[in-house]
Amino acid sequence: MHPAEPPVAAPAPSSRSIALLLTGAAIAAGVLVYSGVTGRARSFQETKDWTEAQATPTVSVVQAKRGPQAEILSLPGSINALSTASLYARASGYVTAWHADIGARVRRGEVLAEISAPDLDQQLVEARATVVQLEAAVQQAQANADMSEATNRRTSRLVAQGWSSEERGDTDRFTAASRLAALAVAKANRAAQQAVVGRLEELTRFKEIRAPFDGVVTARTVNLGDLLTAGGTSNRPLFRVSDIRRIRVYVNVPQAFLAAMKPGLKATLRVPGQDRTVSTEVVATANSVSEESRKGLVELQAENPSGDLWPGAFTEVQFQIPSNPDTLRIPTTALMFNRNGTFVAEVQASHKVELKPVNLGRNLGNEVEIRSGVALTSRLIDNPQEFIRTGDVVRVANEDNAQHTASAN
């Protein structure tokens, strides 16, 4: 057996190794310190940039565009007949016959219904008999007047010759004048009664209800045996006759377009359920605007020889309004209103805002015409906030993405 060997001692580290170790530790510590400082600085800068970005409002912009060469304005309208007559009874009695139903084409003067009016007939007979009586009274008064006049002439000669008294002459003269006045009264009574007969004869003509003009029967409410009262208009008319060879169309036009509604302006009609369109034109305006709706009534007329367009029907009217293509239009949401007037907020190339006054034209609903104050290249803030002022800095939404895409291409 060999004796155990003594353990070997580890060599002591050299001073150079220690120095290298200390230097590495110092460098590591410096790197850690630098990383911490720069990280905190970068985080502070990012926070600052984010805060500034949040303080700058982001806006959407719109631009003006030119108006069309011609503008089509579509509005609802109502069709009416050129002439419409509601016929009521002018003679009291019972309906004995009617000769025209709805849809019937009738001529002027054609009998539509007949009325039996026995009371009216009896009144006419009595009135004519009274005229005969008054005619006899006139003849009697004429005879009395003639006799008194002859007597007065004879008495006047006798008084002049001294064969009769002046009292007798005055009596005969006044008697002649009185009977002449009685003759005038008798003639006046006869004329008055003749007028009554004429009125009753005129009323008897209303026992026949006639068409007032050429047209079509659009309503009939009369039936056999109906009792009618003369002069009543509170109930439904017996007949309604309409001339539909030519129609009227009434349209309520917004105030912004009334200036273009001149007589002769062309338009087209389209009735639901019909495939064709009808040409028409403006003939008159009401020259008045409703305070409730701010619309004015416009009348158009069109030929309707086939009778396909019915009174009371709804129609869509398309006006062909001439337009100025140089007039610019912007969305109404780009406008700002205050006590100084109407403005738009334009974004300059430097991203600063400038409030510009504008002169408005027609209000077209979602858009408005601009007569001055805006150019085609102007970038206008859509829905600008009330607090925005000239000189404010804004960011345009999607502008950075658009620029990045353009540079990439």
From TrEMBL:
Q: Which Pfam families match?
A: Beta-barrel_RND_2, BSH_CzcB
Where are the annotated coiled coils located?
Answer: 124-151
The protein, known as: Efflux RND transporter periplasmic adaptor subunit
User: Upper lineage ranks?
Assistant: Bacteria, Pseudomonadati, Pseudomonadota, Alphaproteobacteria, Hyphomicrobiales
Q: Which domain of life is it from?
A: Bacteria
Q: Which residues cross the membrane?
A: 18-37
Q: Give the family from UniProt.
A: Belongs to the membrane fusion protein (MFP) (TC 8.A.1) family.
One MF term in the entry's GO annotations: efflux transmembrane transporter activity
Question: What does UniProt give as GO cellular component?
Answer: efflux pump complex
Q: Cross-referenced SUPFAM superfamilies, in alphabetical order?
A: HlyD-like secretion proteins
> What organism does the record attribute this protein to?
Methylobacterium soli
Q: Do the record's keywords include Protein transport?
A: no
Q: Which Gene3D superfamilies does the UniProt record give?
A: 2.40.30.170, 2.40.420.20, 2.40.50.100, Helix hairpin bin (1.10.287.470)
Alphabetized UniProt keyword annotations: Coiled coil, Membrane, Transmembrane, Transmembrane helix
In this chain the CusB-like beta-barrel domain maps to 250-320
Membrane as a keyword of this entry, yes or no, is yes
The CzcB-like barrel-sandwich hybrid domain covers: 84-243
